[in-house]
Design brief:
This protein has 106 residues and is α/β, with parallel strands linked by helices. Helices cover 36% and strands 31% of the residues. The protein has one domain: Transcription Regulator spoIIAA (2-Layer Sandwich), CATH 3.30.750. It is built from 3 helices and 6 strands. It is globular and about 35 Å long. The termini are far apart. The mean pLDDT is 95.
């Protein structure tokens, strides 16, 4: 797992920013999923996943994000990604997930 970590920043009673740092892959995606599950269980259903410090993503991680978006929306919440990294943005484009996710580039 190396230097991977997930930080959760509270932004009020129903909002949170989840910040994965490092490589999101087969070895680390479950840590991200657990962090998002905890946030949802605490009633924070408006989530932004900030990928600013994410250096790599694989297909397993994309599946984790899709599942988290689905669960968040089922709970009446919102789910967005914050991403400025051209390589990651390209990944969302080639998989057409840029049409599924709200992606904030700021």
């Amino acid at each position: 797992m190396g230097d991977f970590a997930v930080e959760v920043q509270d932004e009020g009673e129903t909002r949170a920013v989840v910040v994965p740092r490092g490589e999101l892959d087969l070895m680390t995606h479950q840590e991200l999923a657990r962090a998002i599950t905890r946030v949802l269980e605490e009633g924070r259903v408006h989530i932004v996943v900030d990928l600013s410090d994410t250096t790599f993503m694989d297909s397993t991680s994309l599946g984790t994000l899709i599942g988290a978006r689905r669960r968040t929306h089922a709970m009446g919440g919102s789910f967005a990604l914050r991403c400025r990294e051209p390589r990651l943005l390209r990944l969302f484009e080639v998989t057409s997930l840029d049409k599924v996710f709200e992606i904030q580039q700021g």
